Amino acid sequence: MPKAYISALSGGLGNQMFQYAVGRSLSLRHGVPLLLDTRMVEQDALRAYALSGFRIQADIAAPSQLPPKLGRIGRRLRWLPRWMTRRAYVFEKGFAFDRSMLAIRPPAHLSGNWQSEKYFANSSDVIRSDFELAQPLTPERQAVADAIAGINAVSVHVRRGDYLSNPVANAYHGTCEPAWYALAKQKIEQTVRNPSYVVFSDDPDWARANLHEFVSAKFVAPLQDGSDEQDLHLMARCRHHIIANSSFSWWGAWLNPRADKVVIAPAQWFRAATHDTSDLIPSGWQRL
Predict the structure, then answer these.
(1) Hey, which CATH number is domain 139-287, 1.10.10, 2.40.30, 3.30.310, 3.40.50?
(2) How does pLDDT run across 42-58, given as a tens digit for each residue?
(3) 20 to 30 A from 170, CA-CA: which of 103, 126, 160, 224?
(4) DSSP letter string, the chain
C-alpha cells in the first residue's frame, strides 16, 4: 500500500464528495497523494463513479495499490501483516464528527461517509476549487444560470426518487413533506428580501402539484445526461437555500461561497433517529 490516503467511494454524488473531501483534506495536511478506491461503486448496479465532472486532485487507485477488502472477521484478525491491520484500514466509528481522524497518518484506507464539514473545514477553499466544473455548463443549464443571476434566488431541493420508491431507503431516510417546505419558506422570508424560488427536484411533476406555496417558482427538471454535478452548481449559483435531507443539496448549499447566505435544513435528517447528526449541518445554517 503506497504512502497515501485512499478514500473508498460509495453511494451517489453527494456521498462521494464527502469521501473525497475528507481524504483530500488529510492529504493536504500530511503532504501525500490522495487515491480513490472505486471498487464499491463499480460493483453497484444503481451507482457509478461520479466525480469525473469536477477538477479534483486525485487519481483512481490501481488494483496493485489497493489492499484487499476485509470483512468483519478479517478486521479482527491480529495475525495479519501490519499493512492489512486496522492501522492501515480506517473505518468510520459513527455518524458524528470524530476528531481523532485528523491525526490519522498515512498510509491509510478510509471507509465511511464522513458527513461533516469539520473534517475539511481547514481546507474549504481548496475543496471548493477542486469541485469546480471540469466542463462549461450545457446550453440548457447556462440558460437557467443566466436567469438565476438576475434574481435574489433561493434554491429549493425536493428529493424523492429512491427515497420514495425504495422501501428500505424510505424507512431509513424519509422525505421532507409539503408542510415542511411551507415552514421553510416562511423562515426564509423573515430575513431575505424579495426572494425568488428555484425548485430543483428529481420529481418535478410531484413538486409542482404539491408545493402549493411555490406556485410562482421556477421549476428545474434534471437532465438525463449523467451530469448531475452541473445541476449541483446551478443550486450553488443561488443566493440562499432550502435543502432536503440529501447530501446532494447539502453540497449545493455548501458550494455557495457567500458569507451572507441563508440555508434552511431539516432538523430531522433521517426518519429513524439512529444517527447523531449534530455535526452534519454547519453552524451558520438553520435547522427547522
Answers:
(1) 3.40.50
(2) 999 888 999 999 999 99
(3) 224
(4) --SSEEEEP-SSHHHHHHHHHHHHHHHHHHT--EEEE-HHHHT-SS-----TTB----EEPPGGGSPPP--HHHHH-TTS-GGGSTTTEEE---SS--GGGGGPPSSEEEES----GGGTGGGHHHHHHHTSBSSPPPHHHHHHHHHHHTS-EEEEEE--HHHHH-HHHHHHH----HHHHHHHHHHHHTT-SS-EEEEEES-HHHHHHH-GGGTTSEEEPPPSSS-HHHHHHHHHHSSEEE--SSHHHHHHHHT---TT--EEE-S--SSS--S--TTTS-TTSEE-
